[in-house]
C-alpha cells in the first residue's frame, strides 16, 4: 500500500511551519476521510468475496466463522494457561481423532 494517497495529500505540501491552523485542519480532515473511505471499500470487497464464496460453496462462510470462533477461543485459553503447552490434540480443534470433522 502506498505511503499516502494522491487524493489525501497535495503533490507539494508546504512546510508545516508555514501552514495556518485552518489549513492543517483541512489536511487532517482530508486524510481522515481518505482512510474512512479506504476502510469502507475494504469492507465492501470482503462482503463481495463472502457472497461469492457462499454462492459457490453454500454455507462455507458460516463454517469459516464457526472455525474462527473456535480458534480464537482456543488461542485465548492457551494464552491464559501458557503452561499447558503449544497445541492440543486434533480433538480440540473440532475434529475426531481419526481426522473426520464433527457435525
Sequence-ordered SSE layout with sheet pairings:
Elements: H1 21-56, H2 60-80
Task: Indicate the low-confidence ranges by residue numbers.
Answer: none
Mean of pLDDT:
76
Distance between the termini: 41 Å
Encode the helix/strand succession as letters. Answer: HH
Count of individual beta strands: 0
- Portion of residues in beta strands equals under 5%
Radius of gyration: 23 Å
Please give the share of residues in helix: 55-70%
Major sheet summary line:
none
Class derived from helix and strand content: mainly alpha
Count of helical stretches: 2
Shape: elongated
Structure, described:
It is a single chain. The chain is mainly α. 55% of the residues lie in helices and 0% in strands. The protein has two helices and no strands. The longest helix has 36 residues. The two termini are 41 Å apart. 0% of the residues are buried. The model has no long low-confidence stretch (mean pLDDT 76).
How would you summarize what this structure contains?
The protein has 103 residues and is mainly alpha-helical.
Output the keywords.
2 helices, mainly alpha, single chain, 103 residues, 55% helix
